[in-house]
Structure formats: C-alpha cells, structure tokens
C-alpha cells in the first residue's frame, strides 16, 4: 500500500499528520487519532511514514506533515492519487429496451471509476452496429460506438439485438452490461413461390418467410378451411432466428384432392398477415431417351405447360 514519506532532518521533535483539505488530524507523533487505517512509523534516524491501509477512493488528496520544532513549526505537503476500476451504475443504466418500429430509442450506460471510464458499445453477436442519422433513411455501419448514451433514430427491426456496454479506464478489470433492444412490429409474410406445380404421387414442399416481434403463432390452412395439422398427410416445420421464422409444409403423396390454395398465416399481439400459394398438378409427358452404345438410356422427364386446376 502506498506510503507518504518525508525526511525531516531532526532528532527530538513532535510530528503530526493532517488531511490538508480540511485540516483533519490523522496522527499525533506515533499515535493514530482517526481510526485504525492510519498509522505512523519512524525509520531511524529521520524518516516518518504515514501508512493508510486499506486505501480507499476517498483517500485521494493531499496530506500535511507538521513538525513541531519549537519555537517554530515546519510543514510539508504530499499528495496521492487513487485509481479505481470501473463499476457500472445499475440505477442510471438502461435495462432491456422495447420500442415500436420507427420510434426513437436511447441506450444509456453510466459508470464510476477513476480516471473517468470510457463507455464503448458493441453488439453481442459481433455484427456491425447500424446507426441512422436524424432525417435520413440510410444506415451507417460501425464496429463500436463511444459515449454514455447511444441514440437510435426511427428504429428499424434490423437494429434489434443484444448490446454490450463496456466501461474501461485502464485500471483492470473492465466491466460490461448486456442490454437487449427489442423492436416490436406486426407480422409480414413473404412467399418465394406463389404458384407451384408438381406431379401426382410426389411429396410437395411449400415455404413461407415470416418477420415479426413479439413472437408469433403460425399455421397453415387449405382453401380457407380448417387449420392443417402435423400428421401422416402433412409435415409442418418451423425454424426461428431472432425475429425471422421460416415455415414449411410438406404434403405427402400429392393427390388430386390436394390441389388448391394454401395460406401460411402468422399473428401476434400487433397484427396478422398471411401469404397465398396455389398448387396444381403438372403431368409428365412421355420420357425422352438419350442412349449411348453399351449403356442404359438416361431418362429426362418433361412437364407439360402448367395447367391450373
């Protein structure tokens, strides 16, 4: 622990230590006056040491050594600085933030420490941070953002995710807090192929893409009828990643009774959306053969022009 040392050059004297800022007496000669954290020792013949253990942040400042050498008094001042690692102030730092899409949001992170900590923001998934300037639709991609507050203008769903607020001041260890930004919006459904044809007797796979937050309830219906259920005839599968969901419907042993219109439907607390797919039977024509000597023919099936039923 740091010591404040002065070589005073006298043999028979009285030495007192004071806090220079407010003249609080800490020790008088070899006796501690203000608590057990303060002690004074003499390294013969002329060096008096003030020891402060354990050192605290509030001990930062200047200390006065007063030497009573009657009829005069001599004094000398020494100062110490106390470095403190960063600590995030939970009460002044954002918790998880939830906003509607196109609203403004601000993520805030405050920390204590000495020297004053630097606040750096990064995405937890290591993707670039998307920042939009006021009155602009264009995004700027940055690896990190420095500042205690990170403003987000007209928030977009692509900005959703977990952010790390990292406080550092070159006094280890650095500390961080995880803050999640949730962007709420009604479902949107995209259908990559709205018109599908397949030969009878095959397995047919239909697909839809959903974007929404909060989480959605997703299902399939046929010809505006009842909801389709997973079972021997249908295989229903979903894959979710953040606010994106991929929906698959597999129809086994495609038959004439399966021809029709299918809808993938997605709903959450903010709205409902659906996509439409039309499925028809495409009959193969006579196979076309291409033969080579001493080999079996290769068969290529050709489909007639789509016939929508």
From TrEMBL:
Its main location: membrane. Pfam families: I-set, Ig_3. InterPro entries: Ig-like_dom (IPR007110), Ig-like_dom_sf (IPR036179), Ig-like_fold (IPR013783), Ig_I-set (IPR013098), Ig_sub (IPR003599), Ig_sub2 (IPR003598), Neural/epithelial_adhesion (IPR051170). It is found in: Cell membrane. GO terms for cellular component: neuron projection; plasma membrane. It comes from the Eukaryota. Keywords: Cell membrane, Disulfide bond, Glycoprotein, Immunoglobulin domain, Membrane, Repeat, Signal. Residues 86-180, 187-278 form the Ig-like domain. The keyword Membrane applies. SUPFAM superfamilies: Immunoglobulin. PANTHER family: CTX-RELATED TYPE I TRANSMEMBRANE PROTEIN, DPR-INTERACTING PROTEIN GAMMA. This is Ig-like domain-containing protein.
């Amino acid at each position: 622990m740091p010591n404040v040392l002065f070589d005073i050059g006298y043999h028979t004297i009285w030495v007192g230590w004071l806090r220079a800022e407010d003249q609080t007496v800490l020790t008088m000669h070899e006796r501690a006056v203000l608590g057990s954290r303060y002690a004074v020792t003499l390294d013969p013949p002329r060096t008096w040491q003030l020891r402060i253990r354990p050192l605290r942040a509030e001990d930062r400042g200047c200390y006065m050594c007063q030497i009573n050498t009657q009829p005069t008094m001599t004094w000398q001042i020494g100062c110490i600085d106390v470095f403190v690692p960063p600590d995030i102030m939970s009460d002044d730092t954002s918790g998880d933030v939830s906003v509607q899409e196109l609203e403004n949001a601000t993520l805030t992170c405050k920390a204590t420490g000495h020297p004053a900590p630097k606040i750096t923001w990064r995405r937890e998934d290591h993707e670039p941070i998307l920042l939009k300037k006021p009155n602009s639709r264009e995004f700027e991609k940055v690896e990190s953002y420095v500042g205690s507050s990170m403003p987000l203008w007209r928030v977009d769903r692509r900005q959703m995710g977990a952010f790390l607020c990292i406080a550092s001041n070159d006094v280890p260890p650095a500390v961080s807090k995880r803050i999640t930004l949730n962007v709420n919006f009604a479902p949107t459904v995209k259908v990559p192929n709205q018109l599908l044809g397949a030969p009878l007797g095959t397995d047919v796979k239909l697909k839809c893409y959903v974007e929404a937050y909060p989480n959605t309830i997703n299902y399939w219906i046929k010809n505006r009828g009842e909801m389709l259920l997973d079972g021997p005839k249908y295989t229903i599968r979903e894959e979710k990643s953040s606010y994106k969901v991929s929906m698959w419907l597999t129809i086994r042993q495609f038959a004439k009774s399966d021809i029709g219109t299918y809808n993938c439907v997605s709903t959450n607390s903010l709205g409902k959306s659906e996509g439409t797919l039309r499925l028809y039977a495409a009959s193969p024509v006579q196979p076309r053969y291409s033969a080579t000597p001493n080999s079996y023919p290769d068969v290529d099936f050709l489909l007639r022009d789509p016939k929508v039923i």
